[in-house]
Amino acid sequence: xxxxxxxxxxxQAEQLGFGDALLxxxxxxxxxxxxxxxxxxxxxxxxxDYRDAAVAIMAPYVAxxxxxxxxxxxxxxxxxxxxxxDVCPVVELGGAHHLLDLxxxxxxxxxxxxxxxxxxxxxxxxxxxxxxxxxxxxxSGDTGSAAIEALAGLETVDVVILHPAGRVSDVxxxxxxxxxxxxxxxxxxxxxxxxxxxxxxxxxxxxKLREAVSLGAVNSxxxxxxxxxxxxxxxxxxxxxxxxxxxxxxxxxxxxGNVLAGWYAKQMGLLVNTLIxxxxxNDVLTRFxxxxxxxxxxxxxxxxxxxxIQVSSNFERLLWETSGRDGAKVADLLGELRSTNRAExxxxxxxxxxxxxxxxRLSDEETLQxxxxxxxxxxxxxxxxxxxxxxxxxxYAHALGDNGPPGSRYCGEPVITxxxxxxxxxxxxxxxxxxxxxxxxxxxxxxxxxxxxYDEIDxxxxxxxxxxxxxxxxx
Length: 475
Ligand SMILES: *Cc1c(COP(=O)(O)O)cnc(C)c1O
Known about the structure:
Elements: E1 6-8, H1 18-24, E2 33-35, H2 50-62, H3 68-80, E3 90-94, E4 97-101, H4 111-129, E5 133-138, H5 142-151, E6 157-164, H6 170-177, E7 184-190, H7 193-205, H8 207-213, E8 215-217, H9 223-240, E9 247-252, H10 257-267, E10 272-279, H11 284-291, E11 293-295, H12 315-322, H13 327-340, E12 342-344, H14 347-356, E13 357-361, H15 364-378, H16 384-399, E14 415-419, H17 427-434, E15 455-458, H18 461-473
Parallel strand pairs: 4-14, 5-6, 5-8, 6-7, 7-15, 9-10, 9-14, 10-13
Antiparallel strand pairs: 1-2, 3-4, 11-12
Helix pairs in contact: 2-3, 2-9, 3-4, 4-5, 4-9, 5-6, 9-10, 15-16, 15-17
Residues 109, 111, 142, 220, 252-258, 306-307, 385, 420-421 line the site of pyridoxal-5'-phosphate.
């Protein structure tokens, strides 16, 4: 297998192989690493086991770093931690609408699908190089616990997770702060998720700090996370269309990492008609699709906290592709966005984006209505993020006419909504909709009796840098 090459979206950083891209996280020019080539889609049918599909799809992306046997071992261990034997099962919602359940992992959100694997990859690659890294992550609620679950207790890493103080659900916070492992460090930042993500990026852009503490990333700025998410787009498409015909996906979106994996699946040759970007009131992407301008507003808390994001990092990867891979132009546009909170996207780029994506938003009220409606019609309890995906899929089918007007993109093809979390992670939102609180699964039943351990700090890079240095020197 040829060795894949990864390049930065801002065109200035050196090209890397998979192992270095995995360990580097953010590129040294502030950009995100992307594959130069998309390998063709392997032959996957309805009968292919999820693990086998995962190995076949990812092997070309990791070649030169992990051979197929190593990949098989890591994939096997990663997905043995899932409660359902199909790993990411597909459930019918009625008509042409399906739900892809990504909540079967240990922390009950889709972040486990990638992080259970990426954690093992980081450990293997660091061990091989005889290195130790400080993994710094920002979380809007679910990445943190999934990263901690994947990395707690490992010899090769310290894990430092920043979450926005008071802006994650109690279950989400406790899933992070009750893990008792010497290499896990939780910090609540007085600010928003965007502030946390900016702190992480600022730490990476501080070359001295980055080298001194050997920083690594578990946010979806790390290519390996996006890569691992490509797999379930392929397996679910095959599950609902054994003939290989086209499908569409509705994806509850925050940082654009999940829905971007669907776009990569399409570049590999999966027949994807439309990718539906589903937002809550923090609707920077929906407004972009309406007005062609990226405009950052203040983040407002919503019932779906994991999507309370205005700066969707991974949109940069899509902009880079649609710019014809022009790193200088991408750097200019993102520089403008950073300094003025506003940037217009050239019409040519938008045309390419329009070929693949549409966007809808749901208010908190509409989110509650969707939870109620799905519960009364199907007896299913959706988490608020998934409810936004289901509602957006409904708006999509409705806007285009359920049978599809002539010439429209919607051909009555199946729509698969990605169920990104289990309702038990968001009991307050579910109670507001249904008057009942979903129960936590057995392995988390005593979550509220466990001891929490975390610090709260101001939104200040100097404080974070001090903490990181202190970990390295053991003080
Ligand atoms: C992280 C998360 C999202 C958003 O995913 P992105 O990859 O950031 O777009 C949606 N729903 C849940 C439950 C999440 O944890």
